[in-house]
Structure to design on (1368 residues):
């Protein structure tokens, strides 16, 4: 048993700061544990000892009879350190620090928090919090929390299969209450506050180990840890995350610097997509997705069939399928023929299949049309829409749907646009039939999309193009040095070298075909072109003068072959809290005006680079749009793979920009390269 | 009293097809009218006469005592014509045809529908439907419907201020049931089915006349009628529409044809935006917006202040403000100073203002911080967020909010992320305080955005640049003819004319400055450039040969001056069901790959053309992005205004494409023009 799992497995809980005083926060966990039937030992800790709510209290956790699996610390911030020491002394493996007054208050609080974590770590104690509202297991009735949710007169308290971890306690328990209200079954709710030691992601990873946990949900303000995300993804449990602070991630300005474009939030998007983790934008959407996670069926593809009793719902569903990134199934000819026999003439046999309100007089319409859709290999998932229908009609519909669900092995999601007061038994019937239900087609389809995101095959395997890791360049590496280094990983760079003098430059031009590119190599010269440091198409006669002009800028002169015509892109790699981030984008207006770049977190899997390129809005430019020749996107993908491998062992924070890279009809060539290390100045 | 308003004002209702048979649809309106306390006369019509549910029945509507304000026709499609004739004979002004079997079934049904409408119109009878579920007034208890909603045991039945009209009956009453479930107060629910005579929009316009109606909501599958939309907008009542079939509108292919780009759905978007009508994408969103419409306060601007008890909700609210197209207020220095005195040190005084959970022990935190935000001129609207809070705490918060709402004249929307079972009285308290509430900050902010959309000042007045209406061109008008015509409206075109022969062409080149553009003018030649029909930069010596080459294509040769450098855009105007649609887009990849165009429905108001240009993603290209000169967007706006006026009286369906138009540092020039009329072939 891991220390963290005491949040739901604890057989003994010490409540440090317990009190009997009515209204006090320190009374609430005592109330909740006793009232909701916690089966383990409750150990109130209060300097005055005595009894609290009829339970013997101890003056210190060191005085209480062990073993103690979990301590809930609810004393003032100034007394937390002492409580932590006591927990260490008592051999407690995990403590929740509910107290506020730490990093959330400023630098002093942050120092106190750091010190507290250090004390705990030195003593082998793991910490949840501080500044949190605690944790609850609905299954084992561990209520190490003071959330007002559990003081409500009639809080539903059934075992559940959903694990929900939230950095924000108020939002987390608020969302949990909404989940309960709509009949979802959370099994675990954990708030982790400042994430000082154990993070929300770590709790999610621990929950993934629980066999009874069928789906994982998180509200996060910070996602620093790719390894834990990977472990979560590898657990096979479906995960959905609401990460706030999306729009504060800015950085569209410095268009030619991939680092500036690769805002953290977009990197997170890319990483989650790579890992098959669903990202949602609101609490409602998190709960909608959670509801779909509760049941086991998963789609084998993105093709959706809609069966509806209302034409209006069918149209809304068709709209929503496109919005959700899914596909409207093209039904087989056999299906269409079979449906033509079933559906009334004023219905529709094409997808969306409109069986019309005739279903009210002939409920078998649902059964028979669902049988057809279940049997059709072009259907991966079914959305069943019905509108305002009263009790018995809903029951008949649900019976038909549940029969189909059992038979088919295909997920069926229900869009029932009608109030519960019309059919009060419907929610329980739908749950028993393992049919997730939503009030509108659009919401059902967002949940369906999440099911497909967590079940679609993830990129696997090693890509065809690989490179050995390269040594890291010096922080002040020049353009020719970087190009020479990269060439060692099979990255194509132009032929050429530093010219020794004007004569050598002229000789080089002849060697390179009679015309060449001259570039000033001046450490610290940031904007070479603007400074007059680049000459394209220099002939043999102009070479000496060009050499002298560029040398006058204070550095060396690089002479390179002219590249063929093609389309220019930028390629970059930089470190981020989630690991190395690869970026590709089309040059010019595409990045400057349209921010048209795509990202992946390294290492890239088979096909990742190709998908990065395909995601660009302007990708058609590379494929020969506007009557031009198709360019070698395969070589561009190859470059991305090689780059990903080549930099994999580079230490510290860095940014490597290849900008531009020209994509040619055959191959690519890196025309410029720049490197920045450890927040230092960018090399020329 | 208009005929249509009988849907809610009828003092007598004939139910044609009424029956006592249990379970029959024809029994339901009788049941509902009697059970829910309709005060007027109910006149069941059944060929057998007698009594139905204790009410005397008549064998025909012509036999029933008049006047009859409204007839509900529920007989089979084959007997509808007879019922319509009877209504005409009996002088009934409005009938609802609930019966199916009309246009929704195919051409035969469509013919029957057309004939039915013709009969009714000839007799002065207006029709709702066919293929609908009828209409309800919650205020006057007019229940001319068979919707199962009103058969439910406990349907809430209070007077309301929201008017909801839906083409789909099932979806309409389904959505109405969800509205009732969440405590909204619909006053009118009308389904209009096939919209054969009276359309859903017309019903909305009639509802706008009702003083008690505070907000209008529509579910539409078709919006053919700009005049009614304008009238709705002019009524001053807030309107939100859910229009389905968004994604079926395609047409991104033929990039150089503005008609193809201006898909109907995007035109509808533009028209609604021009008219200050809110467009929503889902039923939930429609109801969220409706809830905000119920209360009178409106924002004077888009600047939002957030006050929250949970940091998490504050961050989510900040994200949602940007998503909703609103602005996070920059609070004044005075406000910040005042808040610093109020908010606990671990809270936040910058917007979002986090008053923290300390509000639980000191409810005045809410009062005092709201006072500051109400007084701050940089705040137009306030979002108040709180999470899971139990009964008494919610009451205190609501009391503070309602005091502020009364004081301030600024709308306050509540995001209460907590279940109703925690505070069962909260929904009623919030309603009494006229505070719309939502479960998440994002939903509150979408509703806030709708409030701003309906209350923001709409473009008014005549624009500076105007032109007299031009006569319509001939269907086969050539490029020089079109240019000559447009020049008459002040549209700038290049100098030049048709060359008579090779010598004349050479003379023209000299006259135009030594270099010119040669263009073949061949009726029916669609792709001039591809056919070799355009030569740019023809000098005097080359002129005769160029003339002969182009003349060989079978038509005349136009010789024009070379235009200055600039950026090419496309400008178009075409007819649509909503009126003439103006389109502007950047040329090249922007339209071909990115579909970067914007639309407005004519006539343009002051500033509309400028806004069209500003909406383009690539607009920065015109403003001197990438170090180039700023171009004359004022002249482009002027062109759009002139074009809007110039074509205003052109009859029939047409499309006029000015592509490209070159935007210059000073002015614009129309380089090519093409005209298509009545679906005919496009002229060269």
């Amino acid at each position: 048993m891991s220390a963290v799992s005491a949040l739901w497995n604890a057989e003994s809980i010490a409540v440090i700061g317990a009190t009997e005083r009515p209204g006090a926060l320190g009374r609430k966990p005592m109330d909740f544990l006793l009232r909701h039937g916690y089966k383990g030992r409750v150990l109130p800790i209060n300097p005055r000892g005595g009894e609290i709510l009829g339970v013997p209290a101890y003056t210190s956790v060191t005085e209480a009879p062990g073993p103690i699996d979990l301590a809930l610390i609810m004393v003032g911030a100034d007394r937390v350190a002492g409580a932590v020491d006591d927990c260490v002394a008592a051999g407690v493996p995990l403590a929740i620090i509910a107290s506020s007054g730490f990093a959330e208050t400023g630098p002093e609080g942050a120092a106190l928090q750091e010190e507290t974590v250090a004390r705990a770590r030195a003593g082998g104690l793991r910490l949840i919090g501080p500044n949190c509202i605690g944790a609850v297991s609905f299954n084992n009735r561990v209520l190490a929390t003071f959330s007002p949710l559990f003081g409500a007169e009639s809080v539903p308290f059934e075992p559940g299969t959903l694990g929900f971890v939230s950095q924000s306690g108020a939002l987390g328990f608020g969302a949990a209450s909404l989940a309960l209200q709509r009949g979802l079954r959370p099994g675990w709710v954990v708030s982790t506050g400042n994430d000082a030691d154990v993070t929300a992601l770590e709790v999610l990873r621990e929950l993934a180990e629980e066999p009874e946990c069928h789906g994982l949900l998180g509200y996060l303000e910070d996602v620093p840890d790719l390894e834990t995300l990977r472990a979560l993804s590898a657990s096979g449990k479906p995960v959905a995350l609401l990460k706030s602070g999306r729009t504060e991630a800015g950085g569209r300005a410095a268009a030619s610097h991939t680092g500036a474009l690769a805002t953290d939030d977009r990197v997170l998007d890319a990483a989650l997509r790579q890992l098959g983790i669903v990202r949602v934008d609101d609490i409602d959407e998190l709960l909608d997705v959670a509801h779909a996670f509760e049941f086991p069926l998963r789609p084998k593809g993105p093709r959706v069939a809609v069966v509806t009793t209302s034409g209006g719902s069918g149209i809304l569903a068709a709209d929503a399928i496109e919005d959700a990134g899914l596909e409207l199934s093209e039904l087989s000819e056999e299906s269409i023929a079979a449906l033509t026999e079933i559906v009334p003439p004023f219905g529709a046999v094409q997808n969306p299949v409109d069986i019309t309100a005739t279903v009210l007089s002939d409920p078998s319409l649902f059964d028979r049309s669902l049988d057809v859709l279940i049997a059709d290999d072009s259907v991966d998932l079914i959305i069943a829409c019905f509108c305002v229908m009263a009790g018995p009609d809903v029951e008949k519909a649900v019976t038909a749907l549940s029969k189909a669900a059992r038979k088919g092995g295909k997920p069926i999601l229900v869009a029932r646009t009608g109030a519960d007061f019309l059919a009060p038994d419907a929610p329980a019937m739908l749950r028993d039939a393992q049919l997730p239900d939503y009030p509108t087609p659009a919401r059902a389809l967002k949940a369906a999309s999440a099911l497909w995101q967590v079940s679609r095959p993830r990129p696997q395997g090693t890509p065809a193009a690989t490179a050995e890791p390269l040594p890291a360049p010096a922080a002040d590496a020049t353009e020719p040095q970087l190009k020479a280094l990269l060439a060692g990983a099979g990255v194509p760079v132009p032929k050429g070298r530093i010219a020794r003098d004007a004569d050598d430059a002229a000789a080089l031009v002849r060697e390179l075909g009679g015309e060449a590119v001259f570039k000033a190599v001046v450490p610290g010269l940031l904007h070479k072109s603007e400074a007059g440091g680049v000459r394209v198409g220099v002939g043999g006669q102009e070479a000496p003068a060009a050499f002298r002009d560029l040398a006058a800028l204070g550095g060396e002169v690089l002479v390179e072959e002219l590249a063929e015509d093609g389309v220019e892109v930028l390629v970059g790699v930089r470190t981020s809290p989630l690991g190395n981030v690869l970026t590709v984008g089309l040059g010019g207006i595409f990045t400057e005006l349209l921010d048209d770049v795509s990202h992946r977190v390294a290492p890239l899997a088979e096909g990742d680079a190709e998908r990065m390129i395909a995601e660009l809005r302007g990708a058609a430019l590379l494929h020969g749009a506007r009557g031009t020749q198709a360019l070698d996107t395969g070589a561009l993908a190859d470059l991305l793979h090689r780059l990903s491998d080549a930099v994999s062992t580079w230490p510290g924070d860095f940014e490597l920009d290849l900008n531009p890279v020209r994509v040619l009809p055959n191959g690519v060539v890196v025309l410029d390269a720049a490197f920045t290390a450890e927040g230092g100045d960018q090399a020329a």
Residues 248-262, 680-684 of chain A have pLDDT under 50 and may be disordered. Residues 391-408 of chain A form the longest helix (18 residues).
